Amino acid sequence: MKRRMTLMLSLVAAFVAAVATLKVGQLRAAGAQGAFKPPPEAVTTAVAREERWPDTLTAIGTVVAVQGVSVSADLPGVVDRIGFESGRRVEKGTVLVELDTRQERAQLAAAEAQLELARLNLERAGGLRDGGVLAQADYDRAVAEQREGAARVGEIRATIERKTIRAPFAGILGIRKVNLGQYLAAGDVIVPLQSLDPIYVGFSFPQQEVGRLRKGAAVTVRAQDASGPATRFEARITAVDSVVDEATRNVGVQATLANPDGLLRPGMFVEVEAVLGEGEPVIALPGSAISYAPYGDSVFVVGQMKGPGGTPYRGVQQQFVKLGPSRGDQVAVLSGLKPGQEVVTSGVFKLRPGAAVEVDNRVRPGNDPAPKPQDS
After folding, report:
1. Using one digit for the tens of pLDDT, what is the confidence trace for 200-223?
2. What domain range includes position 152?
3. 263-267 long-range contacts, Cβ below 8 Å, gap at least 24?
4. What is the CATH number of the domain that holds 118?
5. What is the pTM for the complete model shown?
6. pLDDT surpassing 50 at residue 375
């Protein structure tokens, strides 16, 4: 029994060894013929082209009105008439609110009557003085009374005028803060008033860039609109602050731009891009073409390569690059790549140096310096 078991195990071991030897031979033969070479990876490519990006600085700015005030009451009083609607445009001098002036008008009537009496007394005093009946001192007193009465009338008329609040300049009104019959103390706000065309944008740049900022330099302002992509405005630098903020070491800059449609409102946040020069030439590639890694960023360049048996094929070579700023879908390559080279733009995550590729450019990744996404 024991001998039969040993014989059976020997036969099984010999069979397994024979099968293994056969399979190893088949695998070696298949490897020599290249039967197990992985298929080419499908990728998209783009030809590297040299561009010149302008030298720019970006910042977040705040829209500021050229003229903006909260119109308020100069004197206390009760609102007698409201002559405006919230959100409307008004011209300079438009009557906004009239306060109750019945008491002042009664005082004005009394003062005018007193002035008329003083005028008559002055005429009589003049005749008496010319006749030698009235002393010069009495005549001078009559002149002073007449002038005092005129000044009193002017004062009351000025008070009535100050209780008529007018727009100090042309602009857009905000939301009304008062109601008819409301008592206003001196300084109470009636309505905000802003001049929106032209309009200012205030922002700041690092102190190292002060020497490059010039009055009149071009500035692009972008305001995000909830209904679509950001709206672009063209502006010019009109002022650079004379001091540097000690807390941030930034210098304040002011740009002016036209705002005829009133799309920009004071207090809005906007993105500001200032053009400071022509810049240096770069190679712009889609961001998807870059393989980011802690040891260095790289791209894969497509070219003709040879396999182990000397068979030519299209493969990729990994090249490390130095990156610059980004713009929309694009990233600037400063060095490590030459114009005219064909670079893989999608599918880089599955590549390795020497891998075979098949180029299919029917669908390419975005490569727009100013993309406009449909759903932002």
Report:
1. 898 888 888 777 778 888 888 888
2. 101-162
3. 263/223, 263/231, 264/63, 264/196, 264/199, 264/201, 264/221, 264/223, 264/233, 265/63, 265/194, 265/196, 266/63, 266/64, 266/65, 266/68, 266/194, 266/196, 266/199, 267/62, 267/63
4. 1.10.287
5. 0.59
6. no
